[in-house]
Amino acid sequence: MYILIEGKLEVLIDQAGQPTKVGEIHPNEIFGEIAFFTEDPRYATVRAVEPSKCYVLTDADLQLLAYDHPPS
Known about the structure:
Elements: E1 2-15, E2 18-25, E3 30-31, H1 33-38, E4 45-56, H2 59-68
Antiparallel strand pairs: 1-2, 1-3, 1-4
């Protein structure tokens, strides 16, 4: 799972063999979380359209976070 800290990203999916832009990601937005929760393969490509920085949360990071903060 990723959090965009600065910059701008675009989201692309394959349509008829061509990458097609379907969205943008802006600072403070999260992406990649669906693949984490569903364990499905990723269906989109995310690429930077300007210099960008992301914070990466690995599966282990998220599991520790969930363990430290169980639902009440």
